[in-house]
Design goal:
By secondary structure, the protein is mainly alpha-helical. Helix content is 41%, strand content 10%. Strand 1 and strand 2 form a beta hairpin.
């Protein structure tokens, strides 16, 4: 115990004598001390010239010369990505309800209204080509003035869209008036019981090469925005009036996106799925 006290006294006494000497030295030579501190600080700060923040997990946790990082650098050099994924998660006891669907659409509308430097979401989003020519086509519909049904001079023509892959593949008379109604969800075309897939492939395969190439190079593009709203093609009236049964049927039956036309599994958009005895 006495030895510890002596050691403690020696350490404290040495520190007191050092700081007494240092205080006197600073008081006698203030400018050299100040300049020396500034120079040492400046030299120590030179490292900030090469300072950068690293947020790539592969560089933080994997050796820089690993095969993965070497391959990643090659991809970054020759196939650099210009996109960044953004995900919005909806949490509820049941998201397959009209209330949840309306909240999704409200957020979608708010995103569409964002404008920065004169650019909207549609101007900066990543896009994917959509083969509209294979989903819809145009055909004539004649309308005549009342009381002049027999006069061709008074006939006017306009165009309406209809389903290209619908079951109507027969020749039609252009003089017949064609009346179509807007369908909320085309389960026959986009559902798992669709019978038009083989017919669509046969139609595409039968196109001449020059026509097919012309069509491919003129495809329209849509923003890559995947969610349940695409089932109703972002139609506000259809979304606002959707019922819970319609939502459940769409998620279980549809195998193709009515918006993009590509195959999709909407159940993968959901988490914590609970099914009934029939598997729905």
């Amino acid at each position: 115990m006495v030895l510890l006290k002596k050691a403690s006294h020696i350490v404290i006494d040495s520190l007191e004598r050092f700081f007494l000497w240092w205080g006197k030295f600073v008081a006698i030579h203030p400018y050299p001390v100040i300049c020396t501190c500034i120079i040492i600080t400046a030299l120590s700060s030179l490292g900030f010239l090469r300072f950068r923040m690293e947020h790539h997990a592969n560089l933080l946790w994997i050796p820089a010369d690993s095969a993965y990082n070497v391959n990643e650098d090659w991809l970054e050099l020759f196939f650099k990505k210009k996109e960044r994924d953004q995900i919005v998660l909806f949490k509820s006891e049941n998201v397959l309800t009209p209330k949840a669907l309306n909240e999704m659409f409200d957020i979608y509308q708010r995103i569409q209204r964002i404008e920065v430097d004169g650019k909207t979401f549609d101007n900066i989003c990543a896009t994917v080509p959509i083969a509209d020519i294979f989903q819809t086509k145009k055909r004539k519909k004649r309308q005549t003035e009342i009381g002049n049904d027999d006069s061709n001079d008074n006939a006017t023509y306009d165009y309406e869209e209809y389903d290209f892959w619908a079951d109507d593949y027969n020749e039609y008379n252009e003089d017949d008036e064609i009346i179509t109604t807007v369908q909320r969800i085309n389960f026959n075309k986009y559902g798992n019981k669709s019978s038009n897939k083989e017919a669509a492939l046969e139609t595409v395969d039968s196109l001449p090469d020059n026509i097919y190439c012309d069509l491919v190079t003129t495809l329209n593009e849509k923003c890559i925005l995947t969610n349940l709203l695409e089932i109703w093609r972002y139609n506000e009236e259809h979304i606002r009036t959707a019922t819970q049964q319609e939502i459940i049927d769409a998620v279980n039956i549809l195998t193709k996106s009515p918006w993009f036309g590509y195959e999709v599994d909407y159940t993968k958009f959901l988490g914590g799925i609970e099914r009934n005895t029939s598997g729905h």
